[in-house]
Write a structure and sequence with these properties.
The chain is built from 12 helices and 5 strands. The chain has helices at 2-22, 29-41, 49-56, 58-62, 67-77, 82-97, 110-195, 200-229, 232-237, 246-251, 270-290, 361-371, and strands spanning 256-261, 295-302, 308-315, 375-380, 386-393.
């Protein structure tokens, strides 16, 4: 827009200079003063269009300059006042049709009068029409911009409504399927704990299953509420856990885990703490599924510059399955019960060998780390284990 205005200013200056050169020899004192006043008032045409028009009208009477009044008329017509535009158009027509001196009007022939009227009409109506056209185009551009903005806003709202509908559908599916099965697990494990009185290990296992089921139901309830409410703040706070929950997590993992947690000097953000917890949780799940019975080492410590937090979960190779051997003398186990290798606890298969996996756990952890500006890498150890290492900014 500024480039267009500067170009228009240059074109106007060249046109005025050219018009002055064509009549420079006919200048006397009075026409020179009138033309100077008209030219000096042109820079004010956008701020004071009517004043500029009145200052430039006398040059039409002298017959030396026609361009300044037409430019001023264009600026007046570009305004929003139709009454002012009509008055200005009449003034320009009157100034253009009247000869100077006015007494010459009596001596003009009919043909000269008609020619003067036609020229006055062109010089008054032409700039007025151009000004009105420019105003209409500006209004159309503004209206088009409003329509475009309204359409984009409607599209955004429709997208948000579609997302809300999909979130509600996911919430219904999660509540109707996962909550149903987990609820049954919680109820049955609670009943098993209450019914079992002879075996303490069974009671402990049933209580662990019940506790984890209740915790899963609570987190599921929070996430269903987030999906239905579409609240970003609630989404960030739902299911959030911190570094202080790592020891409880590893203690309930049914694995041989050693934990080394060194808290940084600066308290990490809640999102970083939650990411650390989820990385350790998913890594332990993978060990239970793919390397049951392996030893696991969890280490959380700040970086050397105290600007990052490193998380490392390393597991050893799973132990080799025990070979069949002759049972030593002693009482037979209870009917229907076997003894897990290396323990006195009942069991048949190593824990976790039949757990399903979708293959998205590590992908989700890597995305979680990248969203926080960190990184996550995985590698197989030379001795046969597996390592998950993440670096998160504090």
């Amino acid at each position: 827009m500024r480039w267009r205005r500067s170009t228009a200013e240059r074109v106007l200056a060249v046109a005025v200079v050219a018009e002055l050169l064509t009549v420079a020899e006919a200048f006397t004192a009075l026409p020179l003063a009138v033309c100077a006043a008209a030219l000096l008032s042109l820079p004010l045409r956008r701020r004071l269009p009517m004043v500029t028009l009145c200052a430039t009208l006398p040059v039409m009477l002298t017959g030396h300059l026609w361009l300044p009044p037409m430019v001023a008329m264009f600026e007046v017509a570009s305004g929003r006042s139709r009454r002012r535009t009509a008055v200005a158009c009449v003034l320009v027509f009157a100034a253009a049709v009247c000869p100077w001196p006015v007494g010459e009007l009596v001596t003009m022939t009919r043909q000269e009068i008609l020619t003067s009227v036609e020229a006055a009409a062109l010089m008054s109506v032409g700039p007025t029409a151009l000004g009105l056209l420019a105003t209409t185009r500006a209004e159309l551009r503004a209206r088009l911009a409003d329509l475009t903005a309204t359409r984009e806003r409607e599209q955004r709202l429709e997208s948000e409504r579609a997302v809300a509908r999909e979130r509600a559908r996911l919430a219904r599916e999660m509540h109707d399927t996962v909550a149903h099965h987990v609820g049954i697990i919680a109820v049955q494990s609670g009943a098993l704990r209450a019914a079992e009185t002879a075996d303490a290990w069974k009671r402990e296992t049933a209580e662990s299953i019940r506790r984890h089921s209740v915790q899963a139901l609570e987190e599921l309830r929070d996430m269903v509420g987030v999906l239905r409410a579409s609240d970003p703040d609630a989404a960030r706070s739902a299911g959030r856990t911190g570094l202080d929950g790592l020891r409880d997590l590893t203690g309930d993992s049914l694995l041989d885990v050693t934990v080394d947690v060194t808290a940084p000097r600066t308290a990490p953000a809640p999102d970083v703490e939650c990411a650390v917890f989820r990385i350790v949780q998913e890594s332990l799940n993978n060990v239970r599924k793919h390397a049951p019975g392996a030893r696991v080492a969890v280490r959380v410590a700040p970086g050397p510059d105290e600007r990052s937090l490193s998380v490392e979960v390393r597991n050893s190779p799973p132990p080799a399955p025990a070979r069949p051997s002759t049972r030593p003398p002693g009482p037979d186990p209870a009917p229907g019960r076997d003894t897990a290798p290396g323990t006195d606890r009942p069991g048949t298969d190593p824990p976790g060998t039949d757990l399903p996996g979708g293959g998205y756990g590590l992908v989700g952890l890597r995305e979680r780390a990248e969203l926080l500006g960190g990184s996550l890498s995985t590698a197989r150890c030379p001795e046969g284990g597996f390592t998950v290492r993440a670096v998160l900014p504090l």
